[in-house]
Amino acid sequence: MKKQKSSVVLTALIVALGGFLMGFDASVISGVIKFIEPEFNLSKIELGWAVASLSLAATAAMAFAGPLSDRFGRTSVLKASALLYAFSAFLSAFAPSFTILVMARMLAGVGVGASLILAPMYIAEISPSDKRGKLVSFNQLNIVVGISVAFFTNYLIVLLSKSDASWVESLKMKEYIWRWMLGIEFFPAIIYFFLLLFIPQSPRWLVMKGRYDEALKVMKKFDDDENAEKVISEIKLNVSKETVPKQKTPLKNLFLPSMKLVLTIGIVIAILQQITGINSVFFYAPMIFEQSGIGTDAAFIQAILVGLTNVVFTIVAMVLIDKLGRKPLLIAGVTFIIISMFLLAYGFHSAKYELTEASVSKLPLEINKGQLVPVINKTYKSDTEFKNEIKKVMGEDVEKKYESEFISASITMNPTLILIGILGFVAAFAVSLGPVMWVLFSELFPNAIRGTAISFVGFINSAISFLVQLVFPWELATLGSSGTFLFYGIFALIGLAFIWKLVPETKGRSLEELEAILVKNK
After folding, report:
1. Segment holding 379, helix H or strand E
2. CA pseudo-torsion sign 351, 353, 359, 365
């Protein structure tokens, strides 16, 4: 039994590496954007597209990952996703143009969409029922670990690029910082592919294909013989029922009057999870910290703290969600999200920007300091006003390339407020909207329409995530840092009022009981 237990845990850990690659791929771009914006002379929307294109491709891939895995097998599609991650990393590292870079990111997005769906599905299908929740949670934990590791490797590459070591120079890390950031994922992706070669096909998929002896043999690796035979018998029965023609649930059934309350809750929570700006932080963390004037190196260090905070408070959520309940976590978490966002808005609003002769003298030698004479000793009350003036006197290309240096030389503010606000936001999100949304989705919708409903609200969630990532650089340039975070905070405030009034507590209630309460006029 111990051997079987260790076998299922090891298999789940290997498959969950897909979550690690997903988290890494999603967040590694946060360190890249500083370098590709001036290199490819990107507009703010193009910069947002470099980040958001991955999410767009992932959203599309989710629709096809399930059917493809039913046809070719879970592990076969996971292997394909591992190869996509590897090829994307290689192509990104050598991308000669912005268009090729976006294409490479979208290839990774297909891998993200597939692994997001199939890794937890496979783990659930091999796990004994009493261990399923914990084993499936490996995937979510690996996602946040991947995010954290991406922040760390980005900082490490920036640090190494400043070294005079001969091996650093031979690898051309100074010239190709962002290419190394993206290319390094090739190695864990290839390792993941080869590890998957030792993972058996899902027993449920084998039963679907009529390969009953193979299915039983696989199941016996993960459970004792008696339970394995029982599980395979149950799978056979379920699969036989699924092959009986049955009426599909049309999408229009979601919009029946009886579904109004649960659908409204689902849509609002799906939007709220993203409109509060979580992926702005995960995908643009160094950019945000640079706006506080701490400089590039410190910004990358603080981004690592974002990843670690996310990991720690995701574990806290896993411990608390069944003890405290869903609604208390949502109320507490969103309350602290509001506080964090208003703190960020206040911190950036109180900043002042003034270049002095002393601060100008410390700017990089490549900058023509004589062009800055018209703005020296002038005080600017907002980051947008200051940046626009720098663009006028220096040109847009120079402002893009040295934006962090200009801000560091001119800003007067308390950067600790920004760090506290960002870490507070990430912690609050990780114990509330992050994990609770998906739990609510699995509990709120009635059995007959659950699959269709979760797909619908999940698509809305992904679409809002894409839009938030796409417009964030434009928001910073147009609304300023203070206005952007105030915008997120106002949406969170509206969301808190909605949760308080309309979201039910689902802890300890059966799905049938919740359906009777929430689905009206049946």
Report:
1. strand 379-380
2. positive
| 130-142 tens-digit pLDDT | 666 677 777 778 8
Q: What does the block give as tokens for 329?
A: 């976590």
> Per residue in 162-196, pLDDT tens?
888 888 888 888 889 999 999 999 999 999 999 99
Classify residue 357: in a domain, yes or no.
yes
Can you tell me which residue has the tokens 């799906």? 270
| Residue the block writes with tokens 């700006």 | 277
374: phi then psi, degrees, rounded to nearest 5:
-60, -20
On whether residue 77 sits in a domain, the answer given is yes
- Rounded to the nearest 10 degrees, how much is the dihedral formed by the CA atoms of 58, 40, 93, 303? -70
Nearest-angstrom CA–CA distance, 294 and 351? 13
The domain total for the chain is 2
For 386-404, the pLDDT digits (tens) are 899 989 989 888 888 888 8
| Residue among 381, 384, 379 at smallest CA distance from 351 | 381
**pLDDT-derived band of residue 293, with 50, 70 and 90 as boundaries?**
confident
Relative to beta strand 411-412, strand 379-380 is unpaired
- Contact indicator for 108, 85 with CB cutoff of 8 Å: yes
Give residue-wise pLDDT tens across range 250-264.
667 777 777 778 888
Domain boundary among 141, 173, 199: 199
Q: Is residue 219 part of a domain?
A: no
Structure tokens at 244: 């009986």
Q: Burial-class residue 143 by CB neighbours within 10 Å (0-12, 13-18, 19+).
A: buried
Cα 447-452-457 angle, rounded to 5 deg = 110
Residue 332 CB-density burial (10 A; 0-12 exposed, 13-18 middle, 19+ buried): middle
Provide the whole-model pTM: 0.81
The domain that holds 22 is classified in CATH as 1.20.1250.20
Measured CA to CA, the distance from residue 101 to residue 118 in angstroms comes to 26
CA–CA distance, 376 with 509 (Å, rounded to integer) = 65
Domain boundary (374, 395, 412) is at 412
The answer to the question of residue 210 being in a domain is no
Inter-residue contact 207 to 215 (CB < 8 Å): yes
Whole domain around residue 382: which residue ranges? 352-412
Task: Give the full edge-to-edge strand order of the sheet including 379-380.
Answer: 379-380, 352-354, 411-412
